[in-house]
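WP5 quarterly update. Target: DNA primase/helicase. Source organism: Reichenbachiella carrageenanivorans. Length: 512 aa.
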Amino acid sequence: MDNLNLDTTNPENITFQYTVLDIHVLGGIRTDYLDRMRVTLKTAVAETVIPPVRHNLDLYNSTQVEKFVRLIAEKLEIGTSVIAGALHELTNLLETYRLEIREKEREQPEQRKMLSPEEIKKYKLYLSSPNLMKRTNEDLGKCGIIGEENNRLLMFLIFLSRKMSNPLHIISLGSSGVGKTHLQERVGALVPDEDKLEITTLSGNAFYYFGQHQLRNKLILIEDLDGAEEVLYPLREIKSKKKITKTVVIKNTKGETKTVTLTVEGPVCVSGCTTKESLYEDNANRSFLIYIDESREQDEKIMDHQRAVAAGKVDRMAEQQMIEQFQDMQRVLQPVTIRNPYAQKLKIPTEVFKPRRTNAHYLAFIEAVTFYYQMQREKQYDKETGEEYIETTLEDIHEANILMKEILLRKSDDLTGACRSYFETLKTWLKEKKGQKTFTNSQISLAFRTPLSTIKRYNLQLKESGYLKSTGLKNKGYHYEIVSYEEYEQLKSRIGAVLDQIVEKLQKKKAA
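Structure tokens (predicted):
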């Protein structure tokens, strides 16, 4: 600072002298909120034995400032006019200092790791290897991501889409304690630190105070959507419009109020976890929904891994090295224009709800697969514009279809993920009870060790959707019977058939 009265040499202990007053701003000031100036002041009179006064307040709050002036006047035995003048001058200088800091933060380039030529060659070779998708999935397992083979690869590719002009988004759903956050954290750990922002708690307003380009092409990881209601609106806006704006009122260095428009630009890739599927419909419609594997088989895989770790049979150093390799490998991938020559021939199943947005997601996911295969795709140039691009291949579409079948199946199912999981478990349980076709709420509650209220809620949803029929009298307790055991397999078969048949037709046409 040019003004000698304000010493910012130590940003955690800014000092200010004004006539006989010596003021320290302990802990510095926050630069992320322009609509307030919360500070902790240590105020003393120079060359006196009167002890200093420590107090925190918002310098933009006139009521707090007036009370503080009276407090200091009483404690330090000094006139209120001197104290008021000091605070006025301090506020102006801190405003100027804060704006300078924000400007430097905007202009300062991000620190990114620079790879050596040998490392670049190594990762280009990896990205050029045959069966890249299969190898990647196997290596994800070596990073300590146990099971969830489809979900982990899907999530990895969606996180990778942050580098594209139209990133994808994902929400992980499942019961409490089944590993939603764990999966997101483990796959998120593969993303370089400079490319992600991890959020535990964040107010909705805080989003508007990032630098204009600070979130561009970033991955935003939200640990628990259930505790982040305030950020859902700005998240939805930045997903759709790729930027958010807000107008706030601030004071300039002369104490005059003026309006400032804050703009934060995307695009961003957003990932979150929740147990409450229905509460986030607006955000869910803009995202891929994955359901965590809650099967007994997955439980056994995780517990086996836990035992291996406890026995010292897992090489944690090798896991960390693999994670770092994934981070470096992503640094090699570069933004590139992608064109899909088969796009007009591709169709999603008619059973899918809200097909317009789902169709856009499907095409965008195919682009994400092509983006990952960029080292294996020949660069081409538009004859009219000279623009460089790569083309999607039928192999890319096939790889995308394998991962998308479960997503499209869920988007075609009129049951929630939790209810569908319960229904499929119920079918299996009844098949094992050979000869038993009917059941009661109490019977299933006891067998599944699940609260009766939950069972009643699931069975009511299934009955209203036509999957169950009830028999018996109410006063004797309803008995339920499954209408069709094959409906889900039939839906799954129809979804897969639509995708596979289109690719087969395109392959035959290409070979002809």
